[in-house]
Amino acid sequence: MKLCLACDTRFVAADWLCPSCGHVPQSIAGFTAFAPALASGGGGYDPDNFAELARLEARNFWFRARNRLIVWALGRFFSGARSFLEIGCGTGFVLAGIAEARAGLRLAGSEVHTAGLGFAAKRVPAALLMQMDARRIPFDGEFDVIGAFDVIEHIADDGAVLRGMHRAATAGGGVLLTVPQHPFLWSEFDVRAQHARRYTASDLRAKVTAAGFDIVKMTSFVSLLLPLMLASRLTQRAPQEDYDPLAELRISGWVSGILESVLSAERALIRLGASFPAGGSLLVVARKR
Hints:
two-stranded antiparallel ribbon; 289 residues; 9-stranded mixed β-sheet; 34% helix; alpha/beta; 9 helices; Rossmann fold
């Protein structure tokens, strides 16, 4: 069901014309825009990074490993899902991985910056893509699963995002989340990435349950590489004028391959039921109450 952001009317229709107040969202660069004021800037991320990010994602161990973990979690905990919405889909790398693994799943993606949606449209042409503020999701009971992967840490009011995801999920549906973990890892990387926070497991658990979800799986990942990550972050504590936030993605192919193998072993343990207590990131799977 659609939700008019102008008057809060819920309606079912092929288009976005509100039957109550007549509001129609704008269109920007060919995408329905629910938050046009944020379409070209703001929103907790630098849209100038999208082009380079789109080039690097498929080659980088972390993005590849995270995709496989997400696809596994979706299949393991939401095998019967028929629809999926990704909040903050960026360049569409995760959506493309899900599309390849789950043929027939109705896919949608939102991004606050229209610059990212152009790349996503090329990667996943069948997906419904829209420009949107994650704090104001224009759906009610519409999607079986809603994902946000390294997104909510960019948003000061993450509770509003989680509550909106709860409203937009179907009865019996749920959410998949990944976030950066451990405040002690805070560094110049987080500053330049425009993070509002790094999470503790207890903090994220409290916020997810307060939004109306029951957690069915929570685990750290990038756990076996945590010592390496800590060493890297310790060198980035002081502000750096010439810091490049994408530098970590430009590692050589053979190094990326080794690190991906480590994370593949980690993922195998998670698939067997392990839940790691510490790691660079957190995965949460939760169902709507």
